[in-house]
Write a structure and sequence with these properties.
- There is one protein chain.
- The chain is α+β, with helices and mostly antiparallel strands and 494 residues long.
- Helices cover 23% and strands 43% of the residues.
- The chain is built from 4 helices and 30 strands.
- The strands form 5 sheets. Strands 1, 2, 3, 4, 5, 6, 7, 8 and 9 form a 9-stranded mixed beta sheet that branches.
- A hairpin with a 2-residue loop joins strand 26 and strand 27.
- Helix 2 runs antiparallel to helix 3.
- The protein is flat and about 125 Å long.
Length: 494
């Protein structure tokens, strides 16, 4: 009796536990909750439970006027947005792709859903949907860059412009006393996004000094304002070079001394002028300024009272000053103007990349022809003897090519004539043998004729390999039969 009571108590204890059903949730997530029309997005559906899930079943529910079903990433046991499959785990998922097609808010959920646990008992299942918001595509406004490249002010510290500043007027003049050696240019831009170059402190010398102030807009367009600072020169020294007027620079601060030169002064028109001299080149250099205010050094010859532009080119291995030399050392070369290190140079073109220029070595003082290579921007002394030797070798090579070509042509003609001669000789031999065959009176002689023909054929094949015609067995028999018939006919005729 006690055993029966104990069994009943145990049964009552376990029955409620076995009757408790497991719970599950169909949890839905979106790869994005804020979308624009035309976007595609991913919906992930999880089947979750605290117990092992046997079967999960659901159909996705959505507003087809807002979103469009595109595809399922795992089509196993799924038909479109409907899935029923064996999970075999406490959590499993499948992914679906949708496309946003209209603006508004929409919820993606599940209907006709359910889960069965591992013991084939139905679980109490809930759904956790997801809501997404779809908006219209906002057109991207094009980036507009400012084209404003105007100045709002322009001045020279301590001095007045020749006219009131106007942003549309780009040229101004300022007059300053002769003792002024430095001026300061100030400018402000009308647009904060623009950039200005050409302002600050600058050295000036007697005469015209031109300065350019460039304003670059945000978009990249430029406007150039020019300020011409005229320093009073009570006694200007004007020289004329190639019908262009220059003024002699009287201030040393306006000049830059070249390497290997010393400072001196020279007397021009009873005025002490700053100059530079070199014992190596024996040049005396002074500064000349053109009408645009550009200063360059010139070689001054006090005896001849001449001025020659000092064009010094600097390379890694040497410096040379260009000299005009009209004596072309190699005939048939064309003279061209080329740019070397931003200096326009007269040069003689040898080929596509090589040029000859003439100049004085600033280190040795020697005058030489130099070979300039434009691709690598290199220069070296031109060895005319070596160049002539190379040309001679090239001429000899060309002559050998002509001789070889001529010899080849002659040999070809000779070969053709030889082949033609052999052909005629072979024909004569055949005619001679045919004539002799008339004098043969017996079968032995006919056999000899046949043998001689065979020998002749072998010789012809050896001499004229390219003209061999291989005959098949039937053709050979046919030729032999013709030869026999011809020999018998000739015998009967005799």
């Amino acid at each position: 009796m006690k055993k029966i009571i104990k069994y009943l108590m145990l049964t009552l204890f376990f029955v409620p536990l076995n009757c408790l059903a497991a719970t599950g949730v169909i949890d839905i997530y979106s790869s994005s909750k804020s979308l624009t029309i035309g976007n595609t997005f991913t919906i992930t559906v999880y089947c979750k439970s605290s117990s092992t899930i046997g079967t999960c079943e659901y159909t996705l529910s959505y507003d087809s006027s807002k979103v469009k079903f595109v595809s399922a990433s795992d089509t196993t046991n799924c038909n479109g947005a409907y899935c029923v499959y064996y999970a075999g785990n406490k959590s499993s998922s499948k992914k679906f792709t949708f496309k946003a097609i209209a603006n508004g808010t929409t919820t993606i959920s599940a209907k006709a859903y359910g889960m069965i646990d591992f013991d084939e008992k139905e679980m109490k299942t809930t759904v956790s949907p997801v809501t997404v918001t779809i908006s219209k595509v906002t057109p991207t406004k094009p980036i507009v860059y400012s084209t404003n490249n105007n100045l709002s002010s322009l001045s020279v510290s301590g001095y007045e412009l020749d006219k009131a500043f106007d942003k549309n007027t780009t040229s101004y003049t300022v007059s300053v006393p002769s003792e002024v050696e430095e001026i300061t240019i100030n400018a402000t831009k009308e647009d904060s996004k623009a950039k200005i170059t050409g302002t600050g402190k600058f050295n000036v010398s007697e005469g015209d000094n031109s300065f350019k102030i460039v304003v670059t807009s945000e978009k990249g367009t430029t406007k150039t304002y020019t300020v011409n600072v005229v320093v009073e020169d009570k006694n200007p020294i004007v020289v004329n070079i190639d019908n262009e007027e220059y003024t002699v620079v009287k201030r040393k601060s306006s000049l830059e001394r070249p390497e290997n030169y010393e400072d001196i002064t020279v007397n021009i028109n009873n005025v002490e002028i700053p100059a530079f001299v070199s014992d190596i080149t024996n040049y005396t250099l002074i500064g000349l300024k053109n009408k645009e205010g550009v200063i360059k050094l010139y070689i001054y010859d006090s005896n001849l009272n001449t001025y020659t532009l000092f064009n010094e080119l600097s390379f890694s291995n040497l410096k040379i000053n260009l000299i005009e030399n009209n004596d072309v050392i190699i005939p048939d070369l064309t003279k061209e103007e080329i740019n070397i290190n931003d200096v326009i140079v007269s040069a003689y073109k040898l080929n596509e990349n090589y040029y000859l220029i003439y100049g004085k070595n600033s280190t040795t003082g020697n005058d030489n022809w130099y070979l300039y290579e434009s691709l690598e921007n290199t220069i070296q002394i031109f060895d005319q003897k070596y160049f002539e030797e190379q040309n001679l070798k090239l001429d000899n090579a060309n002559k050998l090519i002509l001789i070889f070509s001529g010899t080849t042509f002659v040999l070809a003609i000779f070969l053709i004539i030889s082949l033609l001669t052999r052909g005629n000789k072979s024909k004569k031999q055949k005619d001679k043998k045919n004539k002799i065959s008339k004098d043969f009176l017996n079968d032995d002689d006919i056999k000899n004729i046949k043998q001689e023909k065979k020998n002749d054929n072998k010789k012809e094949k050896k001499d004229e390999k390219e003209d061999i015609i291989v005959l098949d067995d039937k053709e050979k028999d046919k030729n032999i039969s013709k030869a026999k018939t011809s020999a018998h006919d000739e015998f009967k005729g005799l």
